[in-house]
Design a protein that fits this description.
25 strands, mainly beta, single chain
């Protein structure tokens, strides 16, 4: 009788504990990371309150590679949603602002492998930081978006599916393409998205 009353509560507790990875620099209240997951450099990763990371994500703060040590920072804000199979890898700094939503298979990185022909196998060459990445608050990144190093997206940016973002854009930008370019801007005064050529 008591077991039947306690069972739903215990199931919730078990689910909650299994979806909260240990060893992170910060794990906010009610944040969930749904298994399976892969973390590297957990002590350099922060996840804010109320954020949800879906199954299959690869979250890497690269603190060791090929015998070298690094000091990365990977910060995911409050109420962030990250879809299935996202890959986020920081050697320097990646910040994802509060309220942002990343769709499935999104890729974000702030570094590259060295690929010099005279320096041996690519996978054994040093990693090279190309500049930090900052995703502003309340941004939306569509399916299979790639955000490359040294990019800042201002608050409320919208990025179309399959886009490759190679440069920074200001707040209230709608961008798409490979490489991504400005399509529309949001007019706060008129409360509408307008073609970039009209704004």
């Amino acid at each position: 009788m008591i077991w039947n009353k306690m069972r739903p509560y215990l199931v919730k507790v078990k689910r909650f504990l299994l979806n909260r990875p240990h060893g992170l620099k910060k794990l906010g209240k009610d944040a969930l990371v749904v298994r399976p997951w892969r973390f590297q450099g957990r002590s350099h990763v922060e996840i804010g309150s109320g954020s949800a990371i879906m199954p299959g994500c690869n979250i890497c703060a690269v603190d060791q590679y090929a015998g070298k040590s690094y000091d990365p920072s990977l910060s995911i804000g409050n109420s962030v949603y990250i879809g299935h199979y996202a890959f986020i890898a920081a050697l320097d700094s990646i910040v994802i602002g509060d309220g942002s939503a990343l769709s499935e298979h999104v890729y974000i990185t702030d570094f590259f492998h060295g690929f010099e022909p005279d320096k041996g196998f690519i996978m054994e060459q040093d990693l090279v930081s190309k500049g930090p990445v900052k995703i502003g608050k309340n941004c939306f990144l569509g399916y299979r978006v790639a955000v490359m190093p040294n990019v800042t997206l201002g608050d409320w940016c919208v990025v179309g599916a399959n886009s490759v973002v190679t440069k920074s854009f200001p707040p209230y930008s709608m961008i798409a393409g490979s490489p991504a370019r400005l399509i529309k801007r949001y007019s706060v005064e008129r409360r509408s998205w307008e073609n970039a050529s009209q704004s």
